Fold this protein.
Amino acid sequence: MNPVEIIKKKRNGEILSEEDINYFISHYVKGRIPDYQKSALLMAIYFRGLNGEETLGFVKAFINSGEKVDLSHINKPKIDKHSTGGVGDKTSIILAPLIACFDVVVPMMSGRGLGHTGGTLDKLESIPGFNVHLSIPEFVKNLEKLNVSMIGQTDTLTPADKKIYALRDVTATVENVGLITASITSKKIAEGSEGIVYDVKVGNGSTLPTYEKSKELASKLLKTSKDFGQQAIAILTDMSSPLGYAIGNWSEILECIEIMDPDREVTPLSQDLVEVTLYLAGAMLQLAGKCADIDQGVKLAEEKLNSGECFEKFKALVEMQGGDVSVINSPEKYPKPQFTDSITAAESGFITELDALTFGLAAVNLGCGRKAVEDKIDYSSAIILKKKVYDAVKAGDLICEISGETEKQVSSTKQILLKGITISKDRPNVKGRIIEVIN
């Protein structure tokens, strides 16, 4: 077979056979097909799309490129959650230890930031010493011991997806329903989960441009998961503005600590984050058979979160994966960025827009994300919201703070953010984050 002919086939709008897909993926993983040819195929797929059979072909090829995790010996429900990516979306940090408190196994394999969206692995690695690079045996051992482990893709588990995932980020081919479906479901099937809750973002801060595309993705995720024998629920949540108040790796961990630690006060600026986290928790508990429906699961999860048990489980997770628990107990010890600036309201009124895409791109510019694969993350840099969308403001009120390692980064980030903030005289209609459940 010839990779050029396969690229041409997709470029011309033809359907790739399972043989085409297997050939291209297997030879790419082995280094026999270079990045430039894979990039060409990704771009052809981006414009031409993948049908259902092609998507399944990619899922199978990704799974078959490595090993699968066997958790059949653990006699407990095995439920995971996946978000399609957003700005300030840190629900996994709370959800994983929270659900593990219910004697449910959470084999969470997460990703890094894609484009303007943050990555769970980058946030976890902001905790000094936290190791996301565990082997499969170490991963399984942790699940046996604590019911939860949070890792990145290993070299042996869906290695094809791991290699392509990084390439998509830097070739502007992230926003494709078929590729997103194949990437997500292959990891979740290979990691050993029996059920999965999909948090599919809607809005300009998501990885897809429209409600219709997000709903299409949710439907494809559910169908693909069920084709492989998994239970699944998809929840559409709003990502038109940042979730919670913190954008930036360590700052998002800190916001989660404030929510999990019963001795700390939770700011009203985190209420939307709590809302989404508890709703996703309710869905996970429903799939695990721990409650009759999502609403009942939300109540159970809220009680467990407020009890402090979730926080203790989180600290045990951090310690088990080599992290420094002392900074979790005393976050004030964490290094502070050198330069700060702020944005204040130019007029009185109501905040009608904190554009999530603009805030995400600003965070990347600040060093919270990557513009290229080899870029290093600045863990301490952050954008901290002091007001949320729908809030009333007076002229001069503080809207957000920016902190970073260089004065130039902070200054240029401020200029980006100013384009994403809108204040109106009219009071906006307040909307919740939960849009729709697809079951």
Summary: The chain has three domains: 3-48, 79-329, 335-424. The first strand starts at residue 79 and ends at 83. The mean pLDDT is 94. Residues 79-329 form a domain with the Pyrimidine Nucleoside Phosphorylase; Chain A, domain 2 fold (CATH 3.40.1030.10).
